[in-house]
From TrEMBL:
InterPro entries: ATPase_P-typ_cation-transptr_C, ATPase_P-typ_cation-transptr_N, ATPase_P-typ_cyto_dom_N, ATPase_P-typ_P_site, ATPase_P-typ_TM_dom_sf, ATPase_P-typ_transduc_dom_A_sf, ATPase_P-type_domA, Cation_transp_ATPase_P-type
Gene Ontology CC entries for this record: plasma membrane
Subcellular location: Cell membrane
Transmembrane annotation, as ranges: 57-75, 81-97, 242-263, 275-295, 717-740, 746-764, 784-807, 819-836, 856-875, 887-907
Family the entry assigns: Belongs to the cation transport ATPase (P-type) (TC 3.A.3) family. Type IIA subfamily.
PROSITE patterns tied to this protein: ATPASE_E1_E2
Name assigned to this protein: ATPase
Keyword Phosphoprotein annotated: no
Molecular function terms from GO: ATP binding; ATP hydrolysis activity; P-type sodium:potassium-exchanging transporter activity
Keywords: ATP-binding, Cell membrane, Membrane, Nucleotide-binding, Translocase, Transmembrane, Transmembrane helix
NCBIfam families attached to this UniProt entry: ATPase_P-type
Lineage: Bacteria, Pseudomonadati, Pseudomonadota, Gammaproteobacteria, Vibrionales
Membrane association type: Multi-pass membrane protein
Domain Cation-transporting P-type ATPase N-terminal: 4-77
Length: 916
């Protein structure tokens, strides 16, 4: 267990680490480097390229095909053996290429670490490689630094650190040195600690190194990533199920044939030849390749919607998703702090509109008709907020950005919406900044001495509303300072005789209303200064303030998020917020956008999760809408609990702290803009626009892809059942003297070209009307659900039976065996082409316009043309041993081939039974 350094005083920490503020001695450093090793993140040894390549041949489908290829070559069927071998190699190489794009999360973690560090050793400040740091080193901390280790802060001067990538906290954390009360404090609240890879945004100080390498918080996350099991996606499970089902079916059929052959005393070579034909017929050789192609087409479509799939299996998994665990900042919200509500000291409130940092927004008055430019309190308040501000408002190629503290940036943007900009105000000479007194956590305010163009000085002040009220002596109301009694303002504010009573009541009511909306509230005010005041310290100046107003600030939800969450709700997909932010803020946002829909939806904090065991968490999971102030372990536990409840969770994230959960989830969704490289490498899908609504679009496309895969699998396996059926029927009816209706090479052609090529067009079939109104599929539901397996068998037997009847009829009419095989070959091809039009829908072909998928029409035409070339060209006849059919026979085949599809579809249309 890692030590809880945050509960120790700075001196106790130094003492326990046996160090001083002058740093370690050279001898001690050498000893500790030997004890603790280098300050580096360790990574697990991965599989070699050869191991990954060999792993691809463990697929049971590949195994069966490999046996078929060997037997074909052994028995002299060289063309068949070579063709099957080529298919095996193609499938294996495609899978190998996908796996070569493996995650490199550990490399990304190592890249985030600082290359160098500045330390105090032997009383001197030295710059050393960060990997040489040891516990007990005294690390100097300056603005812009990336912390090279975990430290206990021992000295802080207005020190703020951006810990968003580690904790999910959207704003920099102000650091302090005092020991904290309580030992169950989350990372985001450990204000006297600094963590490896976090960035110093302002101030400076010193810290004593308490953890290096794998003993840091980032090292702990790396360890979680290493030990986090990557679960198979539902898509991978379904494909494995199909593979095992087909393998068992093929073995059963081959076993039956061998038994019959042995019973009749057939030669082994004939039994083997029949077995090869059946094994080739039973296995859809192109299935892995075609599925990859269909998923690739889906991936290309998703990219146009700003979703980049790193793993093809993740695309279909989206369609199975039952719960989306979403980060708040930047995904559900805009990641741009904005003033949402304003209050002027006259008691008027304003709603501030606009999007992001764009200055086109406006102040809309509530319950009054005053324009913002006609409110002296609001205009003066915005002026003060702009002057007492270190953020910069920038414009580049028409795009507005803010550099500096996000809260200060929100004030600058609000002022710009009222026509005020700091640069213009200072450049014009209207105001001159004389001296700044930056914000610190002790006094909870900031101020600046300003000189106006008349030469008068005043103190511009902003800070926490309760602090400003305690230091105030009046309010600016209707252009005048209406209350100016320091005693009244600082004393009993509830005095009925106090003229400040109504203003104070209004002020406090506004604070409460802003708090209810989870707005971060700042107050602004000013104090006129005399020449004597200019010589005083800021502690003496920051009182007798005249309050101008309040500003309620937050990172607002993205405008499109509410509709996206409602779409998820209609589709049976729950949205859960998992954030490092405070519970009150998270709950307010969740309630606003529809994640919290009733009083039964719970909000759970990381501290509460620590009190729960895994079973209790699993039980309560379905009732929780928001998890706040959570750690990487918490996120991982939440994902596991949902999976144990048979949920299919999608997890979004952008920080280092999200990586283990992204890796564990059925589908990890990383942010493409704000996401760290660690998060991107751990995720399966990357949002190129960091927008939650993009996930919903991807869910829709995932469901459509799953539907189309089911249509393709239905078509492909129906063809395989038909091929097995025609051979098996012939073997059973005709006995040992069987002339097989199809050769292995004919079957390969049907599987790969005449059936596989048109079936590919099912991958671009338009979505079904109810794609987003259905409930998600169950985690363990396979491709054969909803009676699809039975339908495949019935349709396949019908197609195979029709092909055998045609074969037997022609053979009994005195035609050659090659001619009869060609008829059976053509019958099966055209039967499958007709069946394609019924496979387009989960209803029947009578309810679907046959011309809405032009790719399918083109593929059917191409397949028919190529197949006729195999029958009628000399080269095709040489390779496939076919003969040219008479026009009458060809016409009869084409018409008869349509009978199974039209008759069975008609029965289904009339009876409404699903299995036909």
């Amino acid at each position: 267990m890692r030590k809880k350094w945050f509960i120790k005083t700075a001196d106790d920490t130094l003492s326990e680490l046996n160090t001083t503020r002058c740093g370690l001695s050279s001898e001690t450093v050498t000893e500790r480097q030997a004890e603790y090793g280098p300050n580096e993140i360790q990574e697990q040894e991965g599989k070699s390229a050869l191991e990954m390549l060999l792993h691809q041949f463990k697929n049971p489908l590949i195994f069966i095909l490999a046996v078929g290829a060997l037997v074909s070559l052994f028995t002299g069927h060289y063309v068949d053996g070579i063709a099957i071998t080529v298919i095996i190699v193609i499938n294996a190489l495609i899978a190998f290429w996908q796996e070569m794009k493996a995650k490199k999360g550990m490399d990304a973690l190592k890249e985030m670490a600082a290359p160098n560090a500045e330390v105090v050793r032997d009383g001197e400040v030295l710059s050393i490689p960060a990997r040489e740091l040891v516990p007990g080193d005294i690390l100097t901390i300056n603005t812009g630094d990336i912390l090279a280790a975990d430290v206990r802060i021992i000295e802080a001067n207005r020190l703020s650190i951006d810990e968003a990538a580690l904790t999910g906290e959207s704003e920099p954390v102000d650091k302090a040195i005092a020991a904290l009360d309580g030992d169950n404090i989350g990372l985001g609240d450990q204000v006297n600690m600094g963590f490896m890879t976090t960035i110093v945004t302002s101030g400076n100080g010193y810290g004593v190194v308490v953890g290096t390498g794998m003993q840091t918080e980032v090292g702990h996350i790396a360890d979680l990533m290493t030990n986090t099991e990557e679960t198979k996606t539902p898509m991978q499970v379904r494909m494995d199920t199909i593979a095992h089902t087909l393998m068992i079916a093929a073995l059963v059929v081959v076993a039956v044939v061998c038994a019959i052959g042995l019973y009749h005393g057939m030669p082994w070579l004939e039994i083997l030849s029949t077995g090869i034909s059946l094994s080739v017929a039973a296995i859809p050789e192109g299935l892995p390749t075609v599925v990859s192609i269909v998923l690739t087409m889906g991936s290309t479509k998703m990219v146009k919607s700003n979703a980049l799939a790193k793993q093809l299996s993740a695309i279909e998994t989206l369609g199975s998703t039952t719960v989306i665990c979403s980060d708040k900042t930047g995904t559900l919200t805009q990641n741009q702090m904005q003033v949402m509500q304003a209050y002027d000291a006259s008691g008027r409130q304003w709603k501030v509109t606009g999007k992001g940092f764009d200055p086109k927004g406006e102040f809309i008055p509530q319950d009054h008709n005053t324009a913002v430019t006609d409110s002296p309190e609001m205009m003066q308040g915005l002026t003060v907020a702009t002057l007492c501000n270190d953020a910069q408002y920038l414009q580049d190629e028409g795009k507005y950005t803010v550099r500096g503290n996000p809260t200060e940036g929100a004030l600058i943007v609000a002022a710009a919406k009222a026509g005020l900009q700091q640069g213009t105000m200072l450049a014009s000479g209207d105001f001159t900044l004389i001296e700044k007194f930056p914000f610190d956590s002790g006094r909870k305010m900031a101020s600046v001495i300003v000189r106006d163009k008349a030469g008068q000085h005043f103190l511009a002040v902003k800070g926490a509303p309760d602090v400003i009220l305690r230091k105030a002596s009046g309010f600016m109301a209707d252009g005048n300072v209406v209350v100016h009694s320091s005693q009244e303002m600082r004393g009993n504010l509830a005095l009925a005789s106090s003229p400040a009573e109504q203003h104070i009541a209004n002020y406090q009511k506004a604070i409460e209303e802003f708090a209810d909306q989870a707005l971060r509230t700042l107050a602004v005010g000013f104090r006129p200064l005399t020449d004597e005041d200019l010589e005083r310290d800021h502690h003496e100046l920051e009182h007798d303030i005249t309050i101008l107003g309040l500003y309620g600030i937050m990172d607002p939800p993205r405008p499109e998020v509410r509709d996206a969450i409602n779409s998820c709700f209609d589709a049976g997909v729950r949205t859960v917020m998992i954030t490092g932010d405070h519970a009150l803020t998270a709950a307010a946002v969740a309630r606003d956008i529809g994640i919290i829909r009733s009083d039964n939806d719970k909000v759970i904090t990381g501290a509460q999760l620590d009190e729960m065991d895994d079973e209790e968490l699993r039980r309560i999971c379905p009732e929780v809408a928001v998890y706040a102030r959570v750690s990487p372990e918490h996120k991982l536990r939440i994902v596991k609990a949902q999976q144990e409840n048979n949920e299919v969770p999608a997890m979004t994230g952008d920080g280092v702290n999200d990586a283990p959960a992204l890796r564990r989830a059925d589908i990890g969704v990383a942010m493409g803009i704000s996401g760290t490289s660690v998060a991107k490498d751990s995720g399966d899908l990357i949002l190129l626009d960091d927008n939650f609504s993009t996930i919903v679009k991807a869910v829709r496309q995932g469901r459509q892809i799953f539907d189309n895969l089911r249509k393709f699998i239905r078509q492909a396996l129906t063809a395989n059942v038909g091929e097995v059926a025609v051979i098996l029927i012939a073997f059973l009816v005709m006995g040992p003297a069987t002339i097989l209706p199809l050769t292995p090479l004919m079957i390969l052609w049907i599987n790969l070209v005449s059936d596989g090529l048109p079936a590919l067009a099912l991958g671009v079939e338009p979505e079904e009307n109810d794609v987003m109104s259905r409930k998600p599929r169950k985690r363990n539901e396979g491709f054969f659900g909803d009676s699809l397996g039975v339908r495949i068998v019935i349709r396949g037997l019908a197609l195979g039976g029709m092909s055998y009847l045609a074969f037997s009829w022609v053979l009994n009419a005195g035609h050659s065996a090659e001619y009869a095989q060609t008829v059976a070959f053509a019958m099966l091809i055209f039967s499958q082409l007709w069946h394609l039009f019924d496979s387009r829908s989960f209803t029947t072909l009578y309810r679907k316009n046959p011309f809405t998928n032009k790719y399918l029409l083109g593929a059917v035409a191409l397949s028919a043309t190529l197949s006729l070339a195999v029958i009628y060209t000399g080269f095709g006849q040489l390779v496939f041993n076919t003969e040219s059919l008479s026009f009458g026979h060809l016409l009869a085949v084409v018409v008869a081939a349509s009978v199974p599809t039209f008759v069975l579809s008609g029965i289904k249309e009339i009876t409404k039974v699903k299995f036909v």
